[in-house]
Amino acid sequence: MDKFIVSARKYRPQTFDTVVGQSHITTTLKNAIKHQQLAHAFLFCGPRGVGKTTCARILAKTINCENPTNEGEACDKCQSCTSFNDGASMNYFELDAASNNSVDNIRDLVDQVRFVPQTGKYKVYVIDEVHMLSSSAFNAFLKTLEEPPSYAVFILATTEKHKILPTILSRCQIFDFKRITTHDTVQHLEEICEKEDIKAEKAALQVIAQKSEGCMRDALSLLDKIVSFTNGDLNYANTLEHLNILDAECYFRLLECMQQQDLSAALLLYDDINRKGFEGDLVLNGFAEFTRNLLVCKDEKAASLLEVVESFKDRYTQTAKKAPAALLVSALNILNEAEINYKAARNKRLHVELALIKLCYLQQALQLTAEGTAVSKKKQIDAPVAFRALPIKVFIPLSPNKPATDPNTAATTGAKLIIETTPAPMTEKEEPLPLVQDTGTEKFQSGKLSALDKIRKQYRTNGNNGNGYTNHPLAISTLQNAWNEYAGRLKEEKNPAAQPFELAVLRIKDENSFEAIASNNIEKQFIEQDRNKLFSFLQEKLHNRLLQFSVIIEEKTENRPIKEVTLTAKEQFQKMAEMYPLVKELKDRLRLELDY
Ligand SMILES: [Zn+2]
Q: CA 226, 230, 236, 239: dihedral to nearest 10 degrees?
């Protein structure tokens, strides 16, 4: 087997043209060389593994080349170029400031700078990770950087530009290296695979490119690793396996569970993922990324930001259409929070499960918030109505000529008499059914009405003979007394309905019916709440079994003259306490301090 050289070294670009993804820099450098306008100090900034050192080496080689091309590239043939390619050039020095950051290291370097190059035109000094230099080392270096000998070129490289002193920045020509795009990385990997005779699915290379996050060095070492594991046959599945990446398929399924609010399926799926050796934070992070990708492809313009394996793109777009943005954004929030707190969580598994539970109920929560106003409206409609009377259905007895003596015997003698009222305010079994109905709904056919009259009449006569009661027509004084007595009872019970009862005005309609007039809807509801009890009470008190009443709202303008008075907050409370003593009681009991 041949001596194995890692791809990152073997395929390190040797000319500006082969540098991947940094054409904005290589073009500028080539032009500077072509026009002999080379600066003496450069600062290369950018993330790791994007080609800073590579470009520095190419620059050093090119400016020392004996026969540079017209495009500003090195010839790669001359003695200088070959010595560079072999790593044997005397004109190239590299200092890793991460491990050599003391003043002495810099002094050694500055001493070297004084010697004129034996061969070639330029001596190139590369200081990598220059931000790691101590401040005294920086100061020792500053003088040389300010007035370098004509043959010296300094290339400072850093991943953290913001840590570089302004005095250094101002003396350098600054080049900002970009992250290498997934597309560029994939292309480069494909070229290498072709040269090395490696079989690789495009999806696999895309996964590698995404995992390396714009760092070519990482991408190449990942490629090496997987090639050696798979004997040069890369596919999507084995690449995922070796990179410890969870298949997007799992996230699609997780999303489905979330949308169907299927908590148990989500937890089982997570268990399954866990068994395969994927840690919780990886799942949280992966699902967050997945959600981000869905959000991104909701908008056509932003869809270019979608960084997924190409064969999945359609599926992402289709799924994104069905998932509301609010759901995705909220899910992203939950995932992000869970990821941040993952380290601190003692029970990691439970921590992730909790996030999944939240996600599964998210849709429901969002619906509730969205329907917030609609719900309150619905509630008003659905609110229990204290009393609702339906028209009475009367069936004519089979033998109308033979009236039954009372309802009980009527049933036994075969006459069918069914009177339906809902809810029937009947308290005792022996009592005849009170005929409750909405006023004005009496639209019976004359025949039926006469039957009803017959029954009523019968009850009345029965009352005289059998049960010993007579039906007294309503009189305002007795009615008012009974009403007041009932209100009094409520007051004793500290029932909040007492007040509305006291405030209500009574009006007699005919001998069996009256109206209770409330001044607003709240009072009306209070009265109606007590309707059934009130019914039996009044029937008993007034000796009227055919009693009917309705509660209506009428503004009592004559009693409550409207005065345009502006009340202070305190007066408002006093007024309220006067009208509704319970408010004051509430305040006293809870020892509330009111901030008027
Ligand atoms: Zn050359």
A: -30
- If you classify domain 476-553 with CATH, what class do you get? alpha beta
Kindly report, residue by residue over 425-477, the tens digit of the pLDDT. 444 444 444 444 444 444 444 445 566 666 666 655 554 444 445 678 888 88
Residues with beta carbon < 5 A to ion ligand 1? 65, 74-75, 78, 81
CATH architecture observed for domain 182-243: Orthogonal Bundle (1.10)
Residues in the chain, overall count? 596
Distance 568 CA to ligand 1 centre (A): 94
> Structure tokens of 431?
């009592």
Instruction: Round to the nearest angstrom and report the end-to-end CA distance of the chain.
Output: 91
Q: How far apart are CA 19 and CA 68, in angstroms?
A: 18
Residue 165 has pLDDT above 90, yes or no: no
Tally of CA atoms within 13 A in the half-sphere of 105 that contains its CB: 19
The conformation of residue 466, written as its DSSP 8-state character, comes to: I
User: Partners of 175 in the beta sheet?
Assistant: 44
The structural architecture, per CATH, of the domain 7-176 is 3-Layer(aba) Sandwich (3.40)
**How far are the Cα atoms of 72, 101, 351 from residue 26, in angstroms, in the given order?**
10, 29, 48
For the chain, percent helix, then strand, then coil, each to nearest 5? 55, 10, 35
Alpha helices, H only, 35-95: 52-64, 79-85
Q: Could you tell me the distance, in angstroms and rounded to a whole number, from the CA of residue 569 to the centre of ligand 1?
A: 92
pLDDT at 443: 45
C-alpha 242 – ligand 1 centre gap (Å): 41
Take residue 170 and report the two structure tokens written for it.
């101002």
CA distance 555 to 77: 106
248-372 CATH, one of 3.40.1160.10, 2.10.110.10, 3.40.50.300, 1.20.272.10 = 1.20.272.10
Q: Ligand 1 centre from 81 Cα, in Å?
A: 4
∠ Cα 506 512 513 (to 5°): 40
* 191, two tokens: 């070229």
Question: What are the extents of the domains in the chain?
Answer: 7-176, 182-243, 248-372, 407-467, 476-553
**Tens digits of residue pLDDT in 378-414:** 444 454 544 445 555 555 555 545 444 444 444 444 4
Task: Give the pLDDT confidence of 446-458 residue by residue, as tens digits.
Answer: 445 566 666 666 6
